[in-house]
Amino acid sequence: MARLLISSSPSLPGRIIGLIVTAALIVLGLMFSMVLIALIAVVGLIAGGYLWWKTRTLRKQMREHQQSMRGAANDADAFKGEVFEGEIIEGEVICKVVSLEENRR
Description:
By secondary structure, this protein is an all-alpha fold. 67% of the residues lie in helices and 0% in strands. The longest helix has 43 residues, at 12-54. The radius of gyration is 38 Å and the shape is elongated. It starts with a helix and ends with a helix.
């Protein structure tokens, strides 16, 4: 009886059932992976559409600013509203930190 339970090779019906179960598991795995990929694509499209919709005014302002800068770059009116007055001193500043003890001496 122990020899019947420990078989070295499965019988033909056992091989056929194993093949059918394996094929069914592969088909189920592919089906669920396709559904998951489709859900990820839909969520990505919705998020991209939302971001595109929320930034439409910003994109419009950027286009208008870019066009105005292109026109003003060739004109002398590029700095029309800005007035520069005073002296421009270019250089580095070195600051010495004095502690309270050194200040009392």
